[in-house]
User: Fold these one by one.
Assistant:
Number 1:
Amino acid sequence: MASSIKSLKTDKIIRKQHSGILKVWGPGLIVMLADTDAGCLITAAQSGAQWGYTMVLPQLILIPILYMAQEMTVRLGIVTGKGHGQLIRENFGMGWAILSAGTLALSAIGALLTEFVGIAGVGELFGISKWITVPISTIILVGIAFSGSYKRVEKAGIAVGLAELTFVIAMFMVHPKTHDLLSGLMTIPLGNSSYIYLVAANVGAVIMPWMIFYQQGAVIDKGLSKDTIQKERHDTAIGTLITQGIMIVVIITFAATLGRLGSHTPLNTVGEIANALAPFIGSETSKILVGAGILGGSLVAALVVALAGTWGITEVLGWDHSLNERLNKKNVGFYTMYALAHIIGAVLVLANVGLVSLAITVEVMNALLLPIVLGFLLVLEAKALPDKYRMHGFYKWLVTFLCLAVMLFGLYMIGPVLGIW
């Protein structure tokens, strides 16, 4: 009898712990799934095709860097109860806040273009016009946010984003050789400028500026307390492993196929990626797996990017900006801005308005924005938090050094994009 009572108490404690974890987890996972968007997946495919397994090591190195940056947003959001834009305004003034919000807005619109192009590309794989897929996706994405519940938005985003795991199936189907993978991990062609450029592109893209604004706003909207910081760190760590794991899986998949054959097939669109993989796993299978993975990444990224941009701008302006309230007179600005972000992105993609030149502008903007955002993040971590919640000792200097390295890579990207070097 006593053992039965003890067993029941143990089960109750375990259920309570699991329930607590589920209530906390989400912001880190969804923002990381969004990080593996259409553009990143295409970059990973190109990396594997061009440089084989040698591009796996940089992705492994980026895991702690990505986690460290996003973990700072967790502490800033939970401890201060303020979003990134609001903290910049309060600590550095309206001028810097407007600069940060303005560049964030341009970056978000540019990222949304990439996501809608990805959505359109998946539809075209199956003979569906972008005039059908893009408007329908826009309506769904806007409708989800208008539901009046952050948790509902988060669950929908995670469910859709997990479709990216279809690339794991593709990887096993192409049977990558362990020996080749280990050999690639030991090979780093640092003397090749093309390789360095692609590494810089991956480094510059791993910490998207909008990710910082999103996760800091998300932990606030979810109502997380200081007692949950450790659990939210775990959420962020698992999300980091998943997103970088997906990037590595895609690299391995294309290293084991096109990379092994030395093929230089262009991989700039969803169709080109699916067609390149078709000879190895079958045309229909390739369409389904590639289509599902990129569609999932594009949808969750579109949701997160638009929210990040909207949160950041409305925080700077001091407007109401919670997803936990349905549309009303107080938050009409927030919901209008969110909807317009999607609508503008969709219209530009449908109209094909200078997308190539716009994409170049967005790359430069992201490269410029990354040092600004990471710089603010480091300073805010040291200035806005009580000493108890700040970084200390060796860990502080390690994080600072790695963030500075990423900032330099971001600046390095400006030259090749503009053709300066």
Note: The chain has 19 helices and no strands.
Number 2:
Amino acid sequence: MVAPTGPLAGVRVIDITAVMMGPWATQMLADLGADVIKVEPPKGDSTRRTGPAGEQLLGPLFLGANRNKRSIVLDLKAPEGVEALLRLVEGADVLTYNVRPAAMKRLGLTYERLAEVNPRLIYVGLFGFSQSGRYAAEPAFDDLIQSAMGLPNIVAAHTGQEPRYVPFNLADRSVGLYAFGVIASALYARTQTGQGQRIDVPMFETMVPAILGDHLYGKRFDPARGEAGYPRLLSRARKPFRTRDAYVCCLIYHEHHWTAFLEVIGKSEMMKTDPRLASIATRMENIDSLNEFVAGELAQKTTAEWQALLKAADIPVFPVHTFDSLLEDPHLRDIEFFRTENHPTVGPVFETAVPSEWHGTPPGGYMPAPSLGQHSAELLKGVGYSEAEVASLLARGISSGAA
């Protein structure tokens, strides 16, 4: 193993999470130098089987959330598997899991037991709901949390169509990002106290303030000063604008944006004559009709023409990417954000760079997402198991991987 570098070098994370939310959080830790040990059941993380190369247990979703980690297989339903995990915990800084706490209790892996083994351990659970309320035992997936936070109905209000989910794992990735910040904060707190702690990161309670931050709106006050829902975001005309040849996003929001836009289209007098443009309040009240007005103007020229005109007028503008055009984005090419790395099992794979740019302790090195149990023997030997004991664990299916 190449010693990791970066701001989290020296931090060891025992990662018992699977699917997306937890692995996304721990990949960010791994990207910044933490030694993340992915503990998997004998069948592995279920995302290994999703999509192309699933038959090789290295599907694209798995590859995109598990780089820079080491994989060990442990059957935690067997006492010997739990014993091996406890040995790993002795030298760890963080343990993350995303099964319900009741399942961790059945496995004998409560915070209280692990804190006896390692009082400095930061024990982080990522699950659906706070354990203090009636939903505590409920399972949770991204679609379910989107529903619980009301997002499909907001999409329906915006589009005038039936409720729909946002077509990417919004809750999983958002809560994973929040969990990354929580873990980093807990590591800092431990430098002050010397003690570990248990932290719960529930999806529902993380996402509710995110959506209400925009949409509580008039009900932010008591008594209410209007209805919930931010009109600018809910406007049915708030969408990419159709040009003569494609679509474009442009933000005509502040007064100086409107002044500049009207000058570009030769209708400067509207700033004085159109009551809809009198203030930000009147623009919010008339957001639908103003968006429709802009849409009518933008339909008359090509996307490239509008980009040139609006950039010159200092109006925010950007083309609407497709998956393919995003991969060819010239800015991302400039900064070498995309790269191809060779995976020893599946061959060349497409990777994205660490998005933050560090000028003092930059992360370095790269390990492709591991094959199932790739590091089992290495890690077991590292916590004191002999060659014979490792061979026995592998032979009995308590662990698996190359000897």
Note: The first strand starts at residue 12 and ends at 16.
